[in-house]
Structures are given as structure tokens and as C-alpha cells.
Amino acid sequence: xxxxxxxxxxxxxxxxxxxxxxxxxxxxxxxxxxxxxxxxxxxxxxxxxxxxxxxxxxxxxxxxxxxxxxxx
Length: 72
What we know:
Blueprint: H1 2-5, E1 14-17, H2 34-46, E2 50-53
């Protein structure tokens, strides 16, 4: 949030929130729950940062956000 607020006019920003989808590899990141996404969206909105929660598509073919990594 500190980084976003460092912008001259942070109210002109728009943040797209997209769920990270885990893969079979040893990910350091985890899938965010719908509750976590809404909580973070509300935090951004309370700080006058526009945002949208985007739908995640492609997880059925391992092509969703976070899954587009080469397999060995």
C-alpha cells in the first residue's frame, strides 16, 4: 500500500485482482480464498484505490494465472 500511495495521484490507479492458481510444482504462493480477495478489495477501496476482482479462467488446462510455467 505504501508503494501505491507514493504515486502523485493514486486515486487515478485501477488495480485488477486475479487469483493465483497453484500448480503441481512446489509453489511458494497459495491460492487466495474468495474471502481474502474481498477483504483485500475492501482495503483498497477504503484507501480510495479503484479495483476489480477478475474471474480466473483456464485452470482446467493449467493455463490460469500462476500456471503458465514450463514443465520439465
